[in-house]
Each structure stands twice: as C-alpha cells, then as structure tokens.
Amino acid sequence: MHKFIRIDMTTLTSTVSEVPAKYVGLGGRALTSNFVNDEVNPTCHPLGKNNKIVFAPGLLSGTAAANSGRMSVGSKSPLTGTIKESNTGGSSSQMLAKMGIKAFVIEGMPSEDKFYVIKLDMNGVTIEEAPAEIIGGCGNYDAIRILGEKYGKHVGVAIIGPAGEYRLPSANISFKDPEGNIRSAGRGGLGAVLGSKKVKAIIIDETGAGKVEIANPEAFMAANKVFSKALLDHPVSGQGLGLYGTDVLVNILNEAGGLPSYNFTSGRIDHNDNISGETMNATITERGGEGKVSHGCHKGCVIRCSQWYTDKEGKYITSGFEYETIWGLGADAGIEDLDAIAYIDRAMDDVGVDSIETAVAVATAMDGGLIPWGDGKAVLEIVKDMAKPTPLARIIAGGAGAVGSLCGLYRTPVVKNQAIPAYDPRAIKGIGLTYATTTMGADHTAGYCISGNILKVGANIDPLKKEGQIEYARAMQIGTAAIDSTGMCLFIYFGVADNPAGYQALIDMINAQYGLSLTANDVDELGKSVLKVERDFNKRAGFTNAHDRLPEFMEYEPIMPHNVVWDFTPEEIDEVMNF
Amino acid sequence: MHKFIRIDMTTLTSTVSEVPAKYVGLGGRALTSNFVNDEVNPTCHPLGKNNKIVFAPGLLSGTAAANSGRMSVGSKSPLTGTIKESNTGGSSSQMLAKMGIKAFVIEGMPSEDKFYVIKLDMNGVTIEEAPAEIIGGCGNYDAIRILGEKYGKHVGVAIIGPAGEYRLPSANISFKDPEGNIRSAGRGGLGAVLGSKKVKAIIIDETGAGKVEIANPEAFMAANKVFSKALLDHPVSGQGLGLYGTDVLVNILNEAGGLPSYNFTSGRIDHNDNISGETMNATITERGGEGKVSHGCHKGCVIRCSQWYTDKEGKYITSGFEYETIWGLGADAGIEDLDAIAYIDRAMDDVGVDSIETAVAVATAMDGGLIPWGDGKAVLEIVKDMAKPTPLARIIAGGAGAVGSLCGLYRTPVVKNQAIPAYDPRAIKGIGLTYATTTMGADHTAGYCISGNILKVGANIDPLKKEGQIEYARAMQIGTAAIDSTGMCLFIYFGVADNPAGYQALIDMINAQYGLSLTANDVDELGKSVLKVERDFNKRAGFTNAHDRLPEFMEYEPIMPHNVVWDFTPEEIDEVMNF
Predict the structure, then answer these.
(1) Beta bridge partners of A308
(2) Domain residues of chain A, as ranges?
(3) Angle at B131 between CA B125 and CA B133, to 5 degrees
C-alpha cells in the first residue's frame, strides 16, 4: 500500500490512508500541484489556516535510478500568491519513497504559540513540541545537529530556520543532505507557510522501510544503465558540472553578455575571474582540507554538481554553492570576493532564506541606496540579522519586490513578485519567455531555455533573436513539468535532450517500475496537464495574462554589451502557454 | 477657452491647448479617470516614465457653489496597482477653475537627479529647479512657508514631502489650504508618482484670472441658495460635523460595535472618551488660543468639519484632524492620548504620508511585534524618521500590506493592498461591499455606506444584515463617482440624500453653469460611466473579481461585541458592480 498522510496542526492529529485514486500514478510536482489545486482555496491567505502544504517524492525516487532523489513541495506561495512547487535534493525524498509514503500534507494551524516537530516513521506520525534550544534564533546547521542527537544521525530532516519562524517572505525549507549539510526547497517562501503552521521541523526515519517495488527489475536496471551513461557521456552533465559546479556559468554568461549586473543595468562584469567556477575549483583544490570540488546532493547522483567550499584553513564553509547565488551577490550586487559570497551563502542557509530571492533583494537594495554597492560585510551582517530580525533584515527578506516597493524603484527585477535570476531576458530572449509565463513567478528552473539559447543543448537558437523562442519556451516548460514529477534532477536534461536513447531509458525506467507502457507522448501530456492545473489555480487566484509580463523597464532600458531591450509583444508572450 | 496643459518632465517643456473634445463636459474624477484609462498603459510601472498624473478641478469648482472646492488627482497607483483618484480640499481647485484650466497632466521623467517646481499662471507654465532648502528632509509646513516667501503668500501649492521624494508607497500630495496649512490627496501613494517625476511642488498663481463663466447666473444663485440651506438644515452636515468634526464618529462607531480596534481584533474600545469628537471640541474650547472647533478646508465650505487642534498652550498643532486618522492611531493602534495622536497627525502631514494608510500600518506593525501597542511616542519618532528614512520608517511607510507581509501576518487589513479604514465590514456589512468592490482599493469615501447603515441618512439598513446592502453599495458608489466629478465635498450627501430639493439644486447648478438640462438620470449615468472606465483600466491591469474580496481572516475571525464574521459570498459581492 502506498500511504497518503494528512497532518492537522489545528488538532495536532494525523491520518494515514491509501493514496486517493485521483493521485495514483502521480508523483512530485504532478501530485503536489494537483493536490493544491484540488484542496486549497486559491484566494486564501497563504499564511492563514486554510492554506495547505504538501510534500511528495517523485515517481522514480527511492529507486536506483540515477539522480532521482528530488522532492517536490507544493502550496500557495506567500511571495507570489500563485501555486508553488519548490523542489530540493537531500535525503528525504528517497526515504519517503522507501517508506511507501506517496505524499504528506500539513494543514490547519495550532492555537498555541509554540513550535512543533513532526516525526514520520514506519509506525506513523508523532507530533511533539520542538526542543527549546532550536527555536528563536538557532541556525539550521546547529538545529540539524541537535535534531540528529535527539532522533539519530540517520534520519532525514526538513526544517525552517529563524526566517521561517518569523514567516518572512523569502523563507525556505532546508533539507538535510547525506552529510548533514543543507539543501533547500528555496523559492516562493514555503518556509513561511511551514512557520505559519508552527512546524519547525519534520523528521523522516526510514528504519524498517523496505525497497521501492519495481515491477520489472531487469528492465529497470538495463534502462538505468543506458540512462546513467547518457548523463555521463554529455560534456555538460558528465564533465562541466562536476568539475566547476553550476558556477561554470559565470564565464559563459558573461561572455554571452547575459549576466545581469548591478541590478540589471549591465550584462557583463569585469571581475568575472574572481567568482567563476574555474576559480572556485582552483580555490577548493589549492586549499585542500575538507574541500570537495564534486559532490552529490543526494545518493545516486552521477552528475555531482555540488561542492564543499572551504575557507583559507581548508574548513568547510558551504556546499551547493550555486551559480545563481554567486551571480546574484557577485555580479548583480557587485561583491567581488568569492569567500565573502561563500560566507553569505552559508548564512542564508543557516537562517533559512532563498539565496536567489535574497541575493536579488540585496542588489535591488543597493540600487535603492540601502546598502553600499559590493559591500559583502554589510550583507553578511544583514543576513545574520534575519534571525532577530532587524527592520533592514526584514526588508531584504521581504524579497526583491518588497525592496523595490520600499525604495520606490521602477527597476525592480521580479515577475509575479519573485526575483528574476541570473540570466538577462533582454540578451537571452528564450528565458524571458519562461520568466514571464511560468506559473511560478520568475524561475529559471521552470523552463531552462539557457540550454538551447546559450549551451546549445537540445536546440540551437540565437539568444538575441525571437525566432523559435516561443515554441522552445513552451516545450521546455512542458518537459520540465514532467521531469519535476519524476523526482529527477533537472540536469538530466543535458543528458537526454540530444540523446534519444537516454530519453527513452528514462521512460523505460518509469514503465519498468510501474508496469506501464508510457510513450514520449504520454510524458508530454503529463507535463501539459501539470501546467494546466497550475494555471487553473492561478486563474482562480486572480492571475491573468497581464501578469505574464516582464518588468516594464526591460522594454526601454537597453542592456550592454548588446544594447538590446525586451521586445516580445504581449500577444507573442501569450502564445507560449497556448497549447 | 478652457485650457488643457501637458507638462513633459523628460524634456522639461509644456504645451497649453484647448480641452480635447472627449474631455469637454467632464471634470474632477470623471476627467482624471477617463484620461488615465485613455493614456496610461495599465501594465506600466507606476513609478516608471510611462505613468502620468493628472490634476482636475470639479465641474462646479471655482464658482460660488457651496463646498465645491475639491480637486481630483488621477494616476496609476504605486500602492494598489489600480487606477486611482485621490481628492483633496485646499485652494488649488478653485484657482485652477478660475484660471480656466480644466486639467493639467505631468508625464515623462527627467534624466537628472534633481527636483523641480512647476509654476502655473495666466502666462502658462514655468519649470524651475526646486530651492535646495526644501529638498531632502524639509517638512511640508516649512516648505509651504518658504515657497510662499518666494512665490507670494497668495499662491496655491501642491507639494510632496520627504516621503514623496523617496517615493514611499504611502506618500501623499499635500495642498495648501486658505490659511497655509495642509490638506491632502491622501490615498494610493500619488506623492510617490510625483516624486518619480521629480516634481517637488506645483505653484498655482491665479493673478489675473477672471471668474468662472456661468451661463445663467440668476438660476445658479437661486439653486445655490437652496443647496446651501439643504446642507445647513441637516443635523449631520449642518450641526454634527461642524461641532465635533468627523471625529464625532468615534462614539457612534464604538456604540455600534464597528470601531475596529487592536488591528481589527475587536469592534469596541473602553477609552473612546479620550479620543472622541466631543472630547476634541471640549479640549480645543478649553485651551483657547489659536484653537478653532469649526473651520473649512476651502473657501465656500458651509459644513466646516475641520478644526485647529491646539497644544496645552493653545498653539496650533494640526488641522483636518479626521476621524479615520484618530480611529487608526487611537483605536486600531490603541494610543489613548489625543495630544499624542495630534502630534503624529502633524508629523504625517509634514513628512507627507497618507494618515489612514500610515495609521493602519502602525497598528498592523504593533500586531506584528514591531512597535509596542499604544506607544504614541515610538510612533511619532518613526513617522518623523520617514524624512530620512530609517528602515523601520520605510516599512511603515510601505503601508499596511507591506507591514503584514514583512511581519508574516495573515491578519492584514487591506483590499488591493490599500488599508481598510475605520469601519469594520463584519459589523457594518454595507461598507464591506464598498471596500471589496471599489476600483480604488479599500476606501470608505468610494461609497460611504456608513450613512445608511449607521447614520440612517439616505437609507435605513441593518448594518448586521445582508438585506439591501448590495443595492445600496452599488448606488452609493455610482453616486459618489458622480459627486467626485463635480468638485463637491462628499459630505454634501448628508444634505441632499433625504432632501429632493437639495439634490435637484445641485443638478440645477451644473445646468445653470454650463447651459445644460441634465436630469438625475444623467448624473446616475455619469457615475456609472466613471466606474466602468475605472474597471476597464483595472481589468487591463490584471485585476479580476478574485481581487474584489476582503481579507480572508474576516471570514473566520468574529469581531466583538456582535461576534460576527464577513459572510457575503463571492457571487453576492460580484453583484455590486453588475449594472
């Protein structure tokens, strides 16, 4: 039996039942988005008692399939007001899948002003008061350690930091990775939703769990072999990401003139060598000690784009040190020192805020005169202050939209109030269409058109031209919605986009696990259905095509070096979701 | 010739032309809303170069008609994202009308980072750099005095305070009244729009202007006599408002159990006697000196609901000391001392922020733990700090919605991000329908259903019941849109609602002035057309029926003493604007 768990924080009770018929066959984002659309009133307040939050491993999670350990978290977002699926690495997805838990839902809101820890194990659900020492300012690194001492080092942990306790709009949900470090369901403020429900942490103890049932194990293993090889054979997923992490993109985007810098007033920086993936690799290698240049965020990852970044003494500072974070602080906010950025990254993980939203908020605040340009020390203090939080820390944790509003800026890089990441839509038009039209607010992972526009994987489109972009942005969003439902890391795209055998192997694994005979067309239909469900929610929440627009300044402020503006018409943009 | 003036802040040039045919016959809100809908792209950024702001006296402004000196200011609001008409007393409306200026528009945005003063006189438009001494922290009281020294004490002044210079979302536009004190186009952050266009002040010099042309002077005077008598004969407009100001409402609303207090968690307070209109009258009377219990915000006002509130030495502190401000600080934020509230009111006028938005933001911040409940001293310092502004001052000046978001509250009393004023929708259901459905964001002046629900003027509706509310809220909004187009003060409603002769006299004045033969039906159609134009703008800006909703908490948090929730269904609410 696959289990579907509901935890009611109003009554502090839970029910474990079979998976409702309508959710059988769904996983990850397909499950969370359908659930949210079915059960959450789209006009409810995201932090009120009527919002719900649902966690679901992907269809392939918990199996031996390479890179299948992602988990989806769904809810109505306090940042965007839209439906939200935020996904993450870490250990929890695979544990839940092995425990036969298809999804768990947290709903309601306790009347007492205290925080709780929810424990899921093979006996069911336990809700107990959170240890006092992890409440009211304790960082996530310490809290995960303390919870490990109490519940065992082997357990999976999902946790909110002080930012989530204070329900700040950028608060994320952190997930323990295999080494006890931090991965995040970062975007959209879902940590604030958990905070509103007074859930400090969720412990997942897989003790006694079996293996995920596979209908046809031989076929599964054969397909996984082909699939893994496809990932390793591709220069991006098999080499570049492992060597330099996602930060490999700094030099690539800078060269392309699509690296937004100084709050989206330029597309190129001079200090790219300070913060590039090549420099990160060299620094970690040179410093030795605990540093690792390549490392996976979950068991079974063969791409291994993470790393352990170290200080001058070779001591661990942070991991999962992503391009988008380094871009935000290094280029958009002009902080020229990678160590300074690393300490801020750690502080963001520790306090529990989305590193993209926060970095863009910082850059916007610099444009608004709240923080000196490039001042890493000031930013580190502000991020740490989110644990109190001071008024300035609250403003930054409010996200780029809040900063723009409180600074009276028209140059506020958000869509649906979510910060635009790392790739300038004026110089890379495909990604602009994703930002404008995704159901999530600006989100590069919703349809990573950088691939065909810049990396030339899966397509070969001129980033400065409109030709082919609408169809590509549509296809990428559909495909991504499907991938996000499998538990697969998005980076598998590099391995399968130009490798039909690799892509077929992915489908073969699903078929082998569930005894199905899905085709590529079925996968496509799954992706479309997910997007339609999400758009239905958003429409009922009050979103229209008028919200599927980039910030107006991009239409009249050209970005260097290409001196280009955003020039898709509203009618063209609306074509993306016309399927 | 009636003049229509365009001032282009990009080129620092202006054009004076005849009124475009489509705006002939319109005034006040009818003119500003049509103009904004015609010329402003609804998806533009309110603080970007493509927004425009338009000022228009009403149809009857500048004449001898009693209470006809209101002016409408229209734009896209940075606070709500909707179309906005914010109207004000002061001297400017009558001056513009006498000068034959039907409207002036400010558009574009200068490239240089300095502020300008625009002067309108019978020779046209002059744009000059603002005196350095009034920029960067100078309060409105001083700035108006300094501008008077430069341009003459007789001129009209519209000005933004430091809050407008910083483009804070609650920034208002202040207008000099006949004594050099301050009236405000308060709601919706239009001071930030003026700030974005780098317009510090607008000087209106009527020297050389003639009289407003009246087609049939005898009929006009006769009608005005009937009209004035109707205002003076009614106990509310002829007596109550003059004696106690709008603050007369504290005891009335407290008795009705509809006085939202402690951030909308109760409908009644115990310290009502501290802050009531009766107490205000007694205090001013007792203190003597400069105090005035009754005073008009513009020449020709016969209701005279304003007052000069004084300190213990009888020295002027503030005027236009309104019920909604006193409610917000006194009941909703629990500040129990009227003097403390008066000093905050003065500070809000001086820094240039909407006193309703700010007061509700303060109360929300108290609920969020940012300010101690009832701490008037702390609030005064924060409001003064808006001239710097400090981070906390920025948060409060962001309005109630920003405060709610940055404090992670679901109990955030806003509609379309504008603060709900002074009358609880759960206990006074008619006003809730106005808050939900007006094109302006929560705004009591958009359809003052308190009249028929509580004061029993114009209708006699049980405030706790649904019966009759939908039709009443619809009629009140239509009528108000028409009144807002005449330049008439909203309070004339009390004089004409139950007095057919008084109402006919209002129409007769318009007919006598313009040589028309309008009927009551035409006035009704005017109101409907204004609302339709505004809703068209909002729809194109992305607003749907899903935004015509009160905050969700009002549906499940009952308010004392009647222990009632907001219980109109979405379908019922949507009927209000179905005409």
Answers:
(1) A292, A319
(2) 3-204
(3) 155
State the average pLDDT for chain A. 97
Cα–Cα distance, B186 to B199 (Å, whole number): 17
pLDDT tens digit sequence for A337-389: 999 999 999 999 999 999 999 999 999 999 999 999 999 999 999 999 999 99
Sign of torsion over alpha carbons A213, A19, A189, A131:
negative
- Which residues have a Cβ under 8 Å from the Cβ of A68 and sit 6 or more positions away? A58, A60, A61, A62, A94, A300, A486, A487, A488, A489
Best probe of the A interface among B394, B409, B554, by most A CBs < 10 A, is B394
Helix (H) or strand (E) holding B34: helix B28-39
Q: A102-152: per-residue pLDDT in tens?
A: 999 999 999 999 999 999 999 999 999 999 999 999 999 999 999 999 999
User: Rounded distance, CA B12 to CA A339, Å?
Assistant: 47
The answer, as to whether pTM is greater than 0.80, is yes
Q: Which of A468, A419, A417 is nearest to A576 (CA)?
A: A468
Given an 8 Å threshold on Cβ–Cβ distance, is A392 in contact with B397? no
Q: Is A543 on the interface with B (CB under 8 A)?
A: yes
The 10 Å Cβ neighbour count of residue A127 is 17
Question: What are the tokens at B116?
Answer: 């300008």
Residue A249: in which H helix or E strand, if any?
A: helix A249-256
Q: Cα(B476)–Cα(B451) distance, rounded to whole angstroms? A: 9
**Within an 8 Å CB–CB cutoff, is residue B413 touching chain A?**
no
**Subunit contact B394:A395, Cβ cutoff 8 A:** yes
Evaluate whether B176 touches B161 at the Cβ level (below 8 Å): no
Residue A51 to residues A39, A43, A45, Cα–Cα distance (Å)? 9, 10, 7
State yes or no: pLDDT of A298 exceeds 90: no
A553 contacts on B by Cβ (under 8 Å): 45, 48
CB contact residues (below 8 A), chain B span 22-81, against chain A = 42-50, 78
- N- to C-terminal Cα separation, chain A: 36
Q: Distance between terminal CA atoms of chain B?
A: 36
Q: Does B392 touch chain A (CB under 8 A)?
A: yes
Question: What topology does CATH give the domain B3-204?
Answer: Aldehyde Ferredoxin Oxidoreductase;  A, domain 1 (3.60.9)
d(CA B571, CA B569): 5
pLDDT tens, residue by residue, A491-527: 999 999 999 999 999 999 999 999 999 999 999 999 9
For tokens 């994703």, name the residue.
Answer: A434
Residue for token pair 């002769």:
B501
* CA dihedral of B566, B568, B571, B573, whole degrees rounded to 10: -80
Alpha carbon of residue A133 to chain centroid: 28
Let me know: does A194 contact A53? Beta carbons within 8 Å: yes
Query: B7 phi and psi, to 5 degrees?
Result: -120, 120
What are the counts of helices (DSSP H) followed by strands (DSSP E) for chain A? 25, 17
For residues B191 and A64, give the distance between their C-alpha atoms in angstroms, rounded to a whole number. Answer: 61
Phi, psi of B468 (to 5 degrees): 80, -10
List the structure tokens of B352.
Answer: 């240039």
What is the DSSP annotation of B346-374? HHHHHHTB-HHHHHHHHHHHHHTTSS-TT
Contact A457, A470 (CB under 8 A): no
In this structure, the number of other CB atoms found within 10 A of the CB of residue B285 comes to: 11
DSSP state of B258: -
